[in-house]
Amino acid sequence: MTDHYDVVVAGAGPAGAQCARDAASRGYDVLLLETEAEDGFPRASNKSTGGTFPTMLASFNVPDDVVMHFTDNVVLESPNEQFVRRHPGAVLEFAEFKRFLVDDAREKGAEVRFDSRVSQPVMEGGEVVGVKYDGDSEVRAEVVVDATGPAAPLAKQLGVTDLERDHQAIGIEHEFEGVQLDHPDYADLTDGMMLRLDHEYAPGGYSWIFHTGEDTAKVGVCFIQNEAYKQYAGQERTVDGYLEHWLETDPRFENAERLPGKTHRGSAHIQPPGTMTTDNFIAVGDTVPTIDPLWGEGIHVGMESGRAAAITIDACLTHRDRDTSQEYIDLYNDLWHDDVAPKAVPRLLMTELLYFTSNERYDRLMRDLKRLDDDTLSKANAGSLRAISRLVHLDDIGLLTQFAKHRLSDDSWNIR
Question: What pTM, to 2 d.p., does this model score?
């Protein structure tokens, strides 16, 4: 007999596991399918820097014991300038965080099946009614949720997502001990999370140092191989090569030693979402994609997307007709744009323009941030055009014109 559930979630990352947690807590029959084996989970999918904020921990009842280190400051670096802002943060032990979410989903009543690779949707009458996994195994549900990330086997076959290669960010991170966090030539990174804008180390992207306690830190590089990358890449280096170049030339790493087994690789798409739902189906997390474009933080917004999916499912299944058609499941799109990632387009455009900017302009941006109040930065980060305009100068016209011409060739930004 074919199993039948109220909800089937493919993928036990933060977005999928949170959707399962919320839906199960509402009393629905939930099945969470995860590709990896339970033994050692997550081994292959332990790909996040784990940088987030205490507001996420509080909003989603995440315990402190999955936190490697609480931080006090956010630091922005350019080649010759630094900007420090007091803002509490949390660097997670990402594997423990994922295990907590899955275990908690189970405690709330969800069934979890590991070693269960979802391959395609089950269709009837042109609508998705379930999923196939592990070859011929099949399970049916009122609502199917794709939380598999960029692989998106369900969303792609249903025509719900259109992840573009030239918007794909790739990254690598190592964990080190012996990092000199208080080097006199740089801002003090003790109890800090730092992002560096510098095309020498991350052309068309950024690099980071996240303090994880004592003299240890997560250190990584991420960039998109788009026009900004092509413009600023000095030579043919892989992402590994750029990280090695940084490690070799930054004095903070002179005595640093890489911790064995603590290398993380990952990718995500930084682009506007298209359609995120269809009859009986929702895409969440990096399947959409859902990532904070400016800071690269995907955990909080991913969790929010999982919660928005659960709210949508609850609204559909408590409807007198248990209506999961596109008309009702489209509530998720409204929640995503209103609550999960408001002002997505201005923030995405601001991010791409930021990566398009020269190193000299990065230095000037840091000086601008230091002279402006924190309220301006917060509003700019939230996508306020008025606040963003305070960071723009008359001699930026050439840059803006060049960027506008580049953007006119890309129609993926035409969303609400």
Answer: 0.90
Give the range among 13-22, 68-77, 369-378 with minimum mean pLDDT. 369-378
- DSSP helix, strand, coil percent of the chain (3-state; round to 5): 40, 25, 35
Angle (nearest 5°) at CA 190 between 189 and 196: 15
Per-residue pLDDT at 218: 97
- Yes or no: say if 281 and 147 are a contact pair by the CB < 8 Å rule: no
Q: Identify whether residues 348 and 239 lie together within a single domain.
A: no
Domain that holds residue 348: 344-413
Residues 100 and 226 in one domain: no
* Same structural domain, 173 and 254: yes
Residue 195, CA distances (Å) to 211, 244, 295, 350 in order: 12, 17, 8, 16
Which of 269, 303, 328 delimits the end of a domain?
Answer: 269
What total of structural domains would you count in the chain? 3
- What does the pLDDT look like over 24-70, one tens digit per residue? 999 999 999 999 999 989 887 767 788 999 999 999 999 999 999 99
